[in-house]
Amino acid sequence: MTQALPKVIIHGGAGSSVGHKERLLTLREDLHSIVNEVYSKAESGARARDCVVLGCQLMEDSPHFNAGYGSVLQSDGQVRMSAGLMDGEAQRFSGVINVSRVRHPIDLAAYLQPAADRIVSDYGAAELAREMGLVPFDPVTDLRLKEWMRERASNFQSAMAGVVAETVDVPADSESRRGTIGVIVLDGSGHLAVGTSTGGKGLERLGRVSDSATPAGTYANALAAVSCTGIGEDILDECLAARIVVRVTDGMDIATAFEKSFAEATNHGRDFGAIALSQWGQIAWGKTSEVLISAYHTGDGVGDTLELDSGTLTGVV
Ligand code: ASP
């Protein structure tokens, strides 16, 4: 077993605007503290998959992101959450789709990792939460409820809910959107894992399925791991996470895999972002949206993508 320097990258959504300076600073503080906590766990020798679950739980607990507590409401005013988890070493996917009243949807995905049936939805997810003995939890925040009521007043004209839960009242035509979370870890043994957790697009029709608990939004093998965020239908149409992982597996370096995949996405008019790690320790990100809310730990220090220019951009550190 080789001893490698752990690496971590997380995201808190992609969209059209982070908002005002104050919000940027709050987000940066949140992201940096979470990335540091996940890195410490990885540094202490924990497995990639366990570090990913911790990172997802921490982000699900933050009301600033659209996952767990602080999830957006669907068109009928209910929260339904989805999460996907993939262990790169085992190349094993598990997930939960449209679960309600749990605190950490990622815990259901983690519980299903060794199971014969590895993706469950709706009624089955509720049964699973009962089987796991989870205490019922109401993830609705006042801010998300207000956002939904504002949208109802304008007859649900917005394509998606806010990327970050607003800290102040914003006009109904606010451009800010989304806020799904994703975590990828390369552990000290050189193993990869990835998790993605979401409240969905927000305001969607009942029964709509997010990309997050599919290999389009969350995918990993021994060589690369990718988590996506943005318009789920666009991510599914590109099969983005699996597309990038397969390119790296077939010999393309991760920088080229991102450049090619995001050039294609631009040509197809897609609106999303993605983060990745390779087995060789490269940290990668890309976006067609204006902003990608992401932070990473290189082993030497923390960086983020909060103040990138708008438009299609990719990067590797
Ligand atoms: N991809 C998520 C969905 O479409 C939303 C997001 O990433 O913010 O459900």
Automatic annotation (TrEMBL):
A Pfam family reported for this protein in Swiss-Prot or TrEMBL: Asparaginase_2
Protein name per UniProt: Isoaspartyl peptidase/L-asparaginase
Organism expressing this protein natively: Leptolyngbya subtilissima DQ-A4
